[in-house]
Amino acid sequence: MAKKLTEEDILNWQGDDYMNEDHLAFFRQRLLDMKAELLANANATSQHLQEQEATPDPADRATLEEEYALELRTRDRERKLLLKIDSTVKKIDDGDYGYCDDTGEPIGLPRLLARPTASLTVEAQERRERLKKQYAD
After folding, report:
1. How far does Cα 118 stand from its chain's mean position?
2. How far apart are CA 64 and CA 4, in angstroms?
3. First to last CA, the chain
4. Which pLDDT tens digit goes with each residue over 67-110?
5. Helix, strand, or coil here: 106?
6. How many angstroms separate the CA atoms of 58 and 63, rounded?
7. Long-range pairs for 49-54 at CB < 8 Å and ≥24 separation?
8. What is the percent of the chain with per-residue pLDDT over 70, rounded to a whole number?
9. Rounded to an integer, what is the distance from CA 78 to the centroid of its chain?
10. pTM value?
11. Long-range contacts: 113-117, Cβ < 8 Å, 24+?
12. pLDDT by residue (tens digit) across 17-26?
């Protein structure tokens, strides 16, 4: 078993063995940790919503409903992120992780550290956003 890499190891990596076994193990664990945290948040939200009591004051009730709505929107975004995490772990399993979906080029370790679910290089992402903005105008 190879030694477990740290973020610092990843950032300081110099070599031509991009997305080697150690890198893949590091990012798999990072993704699984993210998933566990999101699931814990969802569970906490569920518990929180079940424990709330009705309040007779309309202003308090409105405040609570707004807080619930915000919490549920956050959980919905997290649910979408969970799907992306699962598909990213599958990319690791399939040997496609770390490479741009558009160009096939390496995404880069610093970008993957910042956003482990990234599927595009910064340049490809910017190109997509420019095109999207062009068609939106």
Report:
1. 8
2. 45
3. 53
4. 888 888 888 899 999 999 999 999 999 999 999 999 999 999 99
5. strand
6. 9
7. none
8. 92
9. 8
10. 0.78
11. 113/7, 113/10, 113/11, 116/27, 116/30, 116/31, 116/34, 116/88, 117/31, 117/81, 117/84, 117/85, 117/88
12. 899 999 999 9
